[in-house]
């Protein structure tokens, strides 16, 4: 790749580097991660590239210039800033998702406590609160048990979430992966996933849950996707 | 509406804009909300208006000038600051409460975890600690299951809280709404509602609760409403 | 009382005003209190007086000059700074303790969640962790159910803690009161009381607790009272 | 010891004083300690010395110069900075570990809530989440019940962890001790120990745990020790 190509890539990813780097602070703010765990990535608009956290670097040391630029096979683009660093050890899973789900613009992975607790039982989170109907449109599903080293985590995410309303999957004995239209949206899904995992856990510890009727879930999900928030053009 | 009318409204709401905007930081301070969830509103003294949070705006971006001014049917007052924004998606419920409960000066809604957990079981919180007797005068009741889109949430709040000592209601499968003599008082009720929801949940996980005798509840509630705090005139 | 008397009192309490005011921030730091709940007091060395938090004032607004000076019957000393304010609604209980336990130099009251949860079941906290043996020398006892309005809370604290190793008592359906050789020591007891209440609650949720042998408890308590920390003279 | 010897020691420990002092803020950041509890130590490279927190000093008052330098019998080195202070009351246990485990460069002790809760039941934490397989290579074991005053705590740590994959041991009815190749690594183990103690506790409260197959645990542990993070030479 020529210096010119690299310069063009850097121009294309400049804003996303900042955004992905900044979004990691949401993970620490909501206590979704400890130590160097967890990672956020974002797809580079119009290119077969994504930007992801480096591996094993402390949250305090993250900065736009140490985010790593990868192609959709998870290979680091040589010559780009941060390319001397290894990307997140979950890079293969992120890459697999971007390769197979073109509508996805952001991916997040954490080991947040309550979501990981459901994952340790391989149990989906039932939809018993309206915030969950709004955000996930029903239960949060469990993905297969898969370990790092090949495409099995990525494949498990894609197989579970394709055609599913939920933007979150609890990978068995592991933790949540979330997707979104962009990195910010995937981070929101990670935050909400832990929040509903906690609320529904606490609720069930106290006794029998009351289900929400399916038509109410459908109606809430539909409204939230289409009506909630500020009119799109002004945002 | 003339420019003169708008100016008069802005003068009437200036202090309340600041207060309602600031009070949202109590919701984040006590971890009652995540992401853009939750909302506070306050009635404009002497006018059929209230001030409420805009929809889907992040807590860090809230400011007096983006609070939205609505009439008691929940319509945004055109020309006022913030009127280019959609008000909170719970505006209809707030408006209904102001329309039907003239003594209410503030309304708060959150999905705080422990209160939402009781709501997911549609179970009232029993009054087993004196702080709850002080603040709520007995159990915190559950309101009906109602979804956004018409007046059913507002009606459920009003029907449940009218004539009730409690300033908090757990809307079924949804979360708490609280009312108060002003917005600050409703925020205090939201904070205390989550606190007692958590304490009583934890207490019951450990075994049998011991009830407080009704006459002690009555006596505590009476004292707290009438004696607690600084003498009224000096505050 | 002459202006001269007042000036002498203010001189005697100046340092304690600062200390008691500052110590309240430990209660918020460790999340032992919400809203305006909780209070710290300290006995004025060499005088039948103590300094206590004003009633219903927010933690952000506490300052040395709004701490209230009371005699050991709980009467505010007229003319002292802060005397235009009502003292904490728990002043009578603090005063009763100072009157009947001359060795006590500080009293703290909170509604901290886990301690209040044990109190709602009127169940003592068993001593199953060494930190609890160190600090409390055995279980944390439960006091009687008593409501505000007369000396019954103070009497319950004194009757329960007199001759007891524990510096904390869980007043039934209410919450913990702690005592100490000074206000700082009582605050430490309040912090540790909630910490062990939480740890032992969590431990028991998971299954059977293993008791610590009594002679080990005795030995730990003895060492902690006499050996722990820096040599006394240099501190 | 001559002034020259002392100066040489101070030069050798200067960086480690700063590091050990700073690392204590990780314990408070992750809420692993309250009040003056908990302690971190680090071995001085190339010397039979270690640096440890002073006893009973508040976390806000820790600084490089009040860290205490000890030999491997736990004796304070006279004349060094901080030598007028008593070292942590757990110094004998740290010293025992350094004496008997030459590969250990850092030791941490806390009473963190969830880990202490497993310890109060004397129950090992089962390995049901991949983060635990990565970090600890299997279950976190329980050590014997031992109280302060002789070498029994140190001996319990060494006997339990020698030849074990886990860098954490839950001392019965007491709390976790963790070891690492240096102080930073031992702090990471303390943070992760509490995190997995919490996640697995929550998971089991909700129902049956699904175990991770042993060969997957082995594979994850091997990868994490050898592949994770940045290439060694560049760090």
UniProtKB/TrEMBL annotation, chains A, B, C, D:
Keywords associated with the record: Isomerase, Metal-binding, Zinc
Biological processes annotated in GO: pentose catabolic process
One Gene Ontology CC term in the entry: cytosol
Protein's organism: Demequina lutea
Protein name: L-ribulose-5-phosphate 4-epimerase
Domain (Class II aldolase/adducin N-terminal) ranges: 18-201
Gene Ontology terms, MF aspect: aldehyde-lyase activity; L-ribulose-phosphate 4-epimerase activity; metal ion binding
Keyword Disulfide bond in annotation: no
EC number, UniProt record: 5.1.3.4
InterPro entries listed in its UniProt record: Aldolase_class_II_sugar_metab, Aldolase_II/adducin_N, Aldolase_II/adducin_N_sf
Superkingdom of source: Bacteria
SUPFAM superfamilies (UniProt xref): AraD/HMP-PK domain-like
Cofactor(s) for this UniProt protein: Zn(2+)
Similarity-based family: Belongs to the aldolase class II family. AraD/FucA subfamily.
Catalytic activities: L-ribulose 5-phosphate = D-xylulose 5-phosphate
NCBIfam families named among the record's database cross-references: PRK06557.1
